[in-house]
Amino acid sequence: MNLSKNKPIFKNMLFVEKKFKHDIFQKKVQIEFRQMAEDEKFNKSVEDELICAICYGIAEEALESQCCHKLFCETCIEELKSSESYKPLQCPLCRASASFQVKQEKSCVSKFARRLIDALPTTCPNNCEAKNLVRGNIKQHLTQCPNSKYTCSYPKCDFSGNLQGYQQHIQERHGSDLVTAFDAFWKKTEQSDNSASSNTSWFYYLHFFFFFFFFNKVE
Length: 219
Ligand SMILES: [Zn+2]
Ligand SMILES: [Zn+2]
Ligand SMILES: [Zn+2]
Ligand SMILES: [Zn+2]
Hints:
It holds the Pfam family zf-TRAF. With 219 residues, the protein is mainly α. It has helices spanning 7-38, 40-49, 74-82, 111-118, 138-142, 163-173, 175-194, 201-217, and strands at 63-64, 71-72, 150-151, 160-161.
């Protein structure tokens, strides 16, 4: 058998075999990763690594010490700094100095940990029905959460409730004031438009949108 004649095919076969092995390896890694992501023990061990060494919660705005490479919340470090017992720039865990020069340089902000923490799944603190919430988008969610609490800003009114309840409350309890304020708003807008100084009109427009919102949203 003349091998040299078959060389290109032989070479090709080697390549295919190599590629095949590589693909199998990749598949295996993918499957393992998927299994790990669903594995509670694995998730727990990852979460353990993301815990603040001061408050034992998931590190908020994570900082990483440059000495022992542990994570801390930015607020926990700030609180520690303002306490009397704190020695300036000393690590609270291993006592190494110059570990948290947050103000001087941003070197101890752990961007990687922050990314991981932002991706951790979470639930709405107001127990709304929202799905797919992660820690990174919870603040944004709370600005539009249907269960977010609103307290009435009317003097001596102690109403508090969700957005829909608040809208209803304003219409039912302060409806007449709403009309007065609405009228006053338009008259003032007219005046300021007629007068030379219309500098403040944007402010009234802002209020108009506020009232417009309520008149439209309340059923
Ligand atoms: Zn340390
Ligand atoms: Zn903390
Ligand atoms: Zn919510
Ligand atoms: Zn009220």
